[in-house]
Amino acid sequence: MRNAWGLLLMLAAVFCFGWGAHGWHNAKNVLAANESAEKTRQAVTEITRKSGEALEAKIAELTTNETHTEREIRTEIIKPVFSNVCASDGYVRLFNESIDKAERTLSGKSADSMLGRPASPFRSDRQ
After folding, report:
1. What is the DSSP letter of 115?
2. Contact between residue 104 and residue 110 where contact means Cβ atoms under 8 Å apart
3. 58 and 99 part of one domain
């Protein structure tokens, strides 16, 4: 019986030692994982910081090189308005007629407009 108790005591001691070794092994793995995660976090933080600094520098460069465009409004005088009475009425009429003729020639419009109303397609006098 004494042998059995001794064997049982030895088995309990080996079990406790195994349990402790397993705990140490798990603690060592957790510690290694935490250290690896911390190194990864530091590397990502450093890369993010450098990327942010590069982005800020690029934005600052673009802001300093920004060109300001001013809108220019140009008016073109198509038909001149005579404010001074330096030309006779006949000359102004002749000038306006020549401008109208040049516009019709350039646009391809005919000089004669249709007189009256156009014929209706539903006339009763059609043959």
Report:
1. P
2. yes
3. no
